[in-house]
Amino acid sequence: MITNPISYRVERSTRADRLAFSTLLLCVLLLCSVPTWASRAQMHLLVEIFYYLALAQAWNLLAGFAGLVSVGQQAYVGLGCYFFITATVFLGLPPILSLLLAAVFTAVVALPSAFLVFRLRGAHFAIGTWVLAEVLRLLFTLVRSFGQGTGMSLPISVVHQISDSRMTREIVLYFVSLALGIGSVLLVFLWLRSRQGLALTAIRDSEAAAGSAGVNQQRTKLAVYLIAAFIAGLVGGLVMLEKLRITPAAGFSVGDWSANIIFIVIIGGIGSIEGPIVGTVIFFLLRYVLADYGSWYLITLGAIAVVIMLKAPQGIWGFFAKRFDVHFFPVQRQVHVHTQTSETIQDLQPKDIHV
Amino acid sequence: MSLLETIDLVTGYGDFQALFSISLSIEEGQVVAIIGSNGAGKTTLLKAISGLLRPRDPGEIRFNNSAIGSLEPDEIVRMGIAMVPEGRRLFPSLSIEENLRMGAYCRRSGPWTIDRIYRLFPMLRERRHTPSTSLSGGQQQMLAIGRALMANPKLLLCDELSLGLAPIVIRDIYAAMPGIRAEGTTILLVEQDVNKALQTADRVFCMQKGQITLQGRPAELTRERIKVAYFGM
Amino acid sequence: MFWINTIIQGALIGGLYALFAAGLSLMFGVMRIINIAHGDFIVMSAYLAVAVVGLFGINPFLALICVVPIMFGAGYALQRGLLNFTLGSDILRPLLVTFGLSVIIQNVLLEIFSADSQRLQVPWLETASLRLGDQLAIGLMPATVFGTAVIVIGGLELILHRTDLGRAFRATSDDSDTARIYGVNNRHVYAMATAITFVVVSIAGVFLGIRTIFDPTIGPARLLYAFEVVIIGGLGSLWGTLVGGIILGVAQAIGAAIDPSWDTLAGHLVFLAVLLVRPSGLFPKTLD
């Protein structure tokens, strides 16, 4: 019980959290050293891991924090691929610049799309986003200059613009991907710690209460939707750079860019930043272990996701975080209430305070 | 043996506790009223009895001497407790007659049939196939009562019958009470209208902030005591 | 004349889309769940029919006698045993659980039946046509599908308006708590809604198998069609789904007539247009 509170201070992290953060910094440094010791195949795997991580963070921001369950992020990955081709092949721009431009244009297209799909709510919104992605896939299957259904390859000339040495190209690709992975985590982390982020957590916990507290929900949700599209666009361009070839079916694949990502976030833990990281690791581990079993891999993935949604909806990370109260990315705010006697300092989580 | 008993009933909504050790008993054939201001916990109490909310312990609510706290609402109505919910909560997609038939879904036998309800509230018969939304406030309240009676309950729970209705309409609705009582139905009513409660009930409980602050027969309770119990000043 | 023929064929095939949508509409109306695996259950029914036809060597229509009861039971068990536990104020749970189910079903079908395309053969039906006048001919298959859709939707409306169970569906859809206090066992009623949905799904699946070649992966596309029909027709209206189905069918037929690869796209674009101009659909009943 709290008696006669005198003063309070708002703190963002505990000492355990700060220790965890230092550990993370070490991990990042380790990842930066990868090109010096890893094989080509290992680096390509890491590239893939990082862009899956970026997509997972984006989807988590959408669904876990803004309540926008999208099954249509593949629309923006595909667009990112094709905008990247447009910028490099048809406009002759340098690859890294093209990557950024592709993401920007993807976010621009996301704006009128949002206008359309925001007319739907909940499960309807989810399927609406899927339909939108399908429309884009079909449209690109019909456009001749993009190679229609058989797709397009990235010309060697573009690839050589990064560097003539294949080793340098691989290293550049790796660091771009690393930046994307870490960047997406940081972006989501900083966003949630900002005022906008507090608004988002409020929307997630209770839309009605958030609305009455003056939070502009539509604008916040739109901003999140655009950020997610931007990240997906970056991934699209990166995939193009990595695979050097794209077809509409692959670029707009609901299986690769939605189903896998959704499973990653559910299994890892929806609604936290650590969750998608844990989910991505588990996903790739499972893929490695069950690689020879074809459809059983997907059946297992689906089954694990269903079980977790039923028994432990906060995911594997959520389960451990609750038990041990650890946060690598502290986005909650804790209120410390000081009472008269110094022994009775209470730590309250924001959800303990009732409006 | 009481028909309904609550023993230190504790319940609430998630982390929010709404009832703090409510103990009351209702004898068969009685009309009992619960009065109190908004937020006192009256509707919460009725929700707990009807099964929409769970008490902390299943034994905290006993009906006909068996614990009903862990039962589902559809099991509780089959045992003989029917509720007229706050705000009536008629089914908008259903016609008047269909709303009444929903009351009989639990298939309890007894004196109340559709014809008897139409005799009690004649104006419902004229519009039986029109949507329930086409009725006035008072008529909706009558339909809501009729629906609950179709379940042939031993105990009828009425939540705020007079809410939002004009005095003359309230009078007409309460005029149906003796007819219901005559069939042997026990009535627990929740009311903000203190006068109506005192006029109609054999026994009155007053609630405030989730606790019972006063109880007794209407004749025993003075204005002053009620005011204190109601507002807590 | 060519265009009239095209439109009529499209409208009749719209009956199949209405069958896809009717079940989805019922489940959503009663429980506010969209089953993401809906299309996959349709495909599963088609495969069930393939298995029954293979086992007993009977006509696919006769296979319905086996398939329908099996799917009825499967629907009841699915809802009572799994989906009931996902219900609540969080929309994520039913959505993501059914999403997981969708992936599981597709891959289980893949394991059992392989990726080879299948077809339910009813040769005389596929080529037969009814002549109306000397310029118009409608295929017997599309006409049968449409007729079946009308009968099924009529049947569903009858259940909803003339039976105790149907009344319970409508009451639960309006206000599930109040329905409960009058004796509606929502665990059972929800399961019955899914069971009936699966009856419609199984009929739709068999017709799908007769009409086109299918494989384990075509489920999601059927879900999208079903969803589009529900939105075009209007939430909560079963006859609306028939109209929605006709509209989608006609749109696809016109698209296909312009260019064969345009059929699905034309349907999607009409859906987006309706979403833009009249998001609640043509005959909306449910207020969300």
Point out poorly predicted stretches of chain B: none
**What is the string of helix and strand elements of chain B?**
EEEHEEHEHHHHEHHEHEEH
Global mean pLDDT of chain B: 92
Structural class assignment of chain C:
mainly alpha
Q: Tell me, rounded to a whole number, the average pLDDT of chain C.
A: 92
Q: Largest sheet of chain C, described in full?
A: 2 strands, antiparallel
| Order of strands across the main sheet of chain B | 6-7-8-3-9-10
Reading the helices and strands of chain C in chain order gives HHHHHEEHHHHHHH
For the record, give the distance between the C-alpha atoms at the N and C termini of chain B, rounded to a whole number.
35 Å
- Of all protein chain pairs, which has the greatest interface, and how many residues does each chain bring to it? A-C, 41 and 44 residues
Number of helices of chain C: 12
Give the overall silhouette of chain C.
globular
Kindly state the number of beta strands of chain C.
2
- Report the β-strand fraction of chain C as a percent range: under 5%
State the helicity of chain C in percent bands: over 70%
* Radius of gyration of chain B (Å): 17 Å
Structural class of chain B: alpha/beta
Question: How many strand elements of chain B?
Answer: 10
Give the biggest sheet of chain B: 6 strands, mixed
* Gyration radius of chain C, in Å: 19 Å
Give the oligomeric state of the chains in this entry, treating copies of one chain as homo and distinct chains as hetero. heterotrimer
Structure in words:
The complex is a heterotrimer of chains A (355), B (233) and C (288). Chain A is mainly alpha-helical and 355 residues long. The C terminus of chain A is likely disordered. In chain A, 69% of the residues lie in helices and 5% in strands. Chain A is built from 15 helices and five strands. A three-stranded antiparallel β-sheet of chain A has the order 1-4-5, with no helix packed on it. Chain A has a two-stranded antiparallel sheet with strand order 2-3. With 233 residues, chain B is α/β, with parallel strands linked by helices. Chain B contains ten helices and ten strands. Chain B starts with a strand and ends with a helix. Helices cover 75% and strands 3% of the residues of chain C. In chain C, strands 1-2 form a two-stranded antiparallel sheet. In chain C, a hairpin with a 3-residue loop joins strand 1 and strand 2. Chain C is globular and about 60 Å long. The termini of chain C are far apart. Chains A and C meet through helix 5, helix 12 and helix 14 of A and helix 4, helix 10 and helix 12 of C.
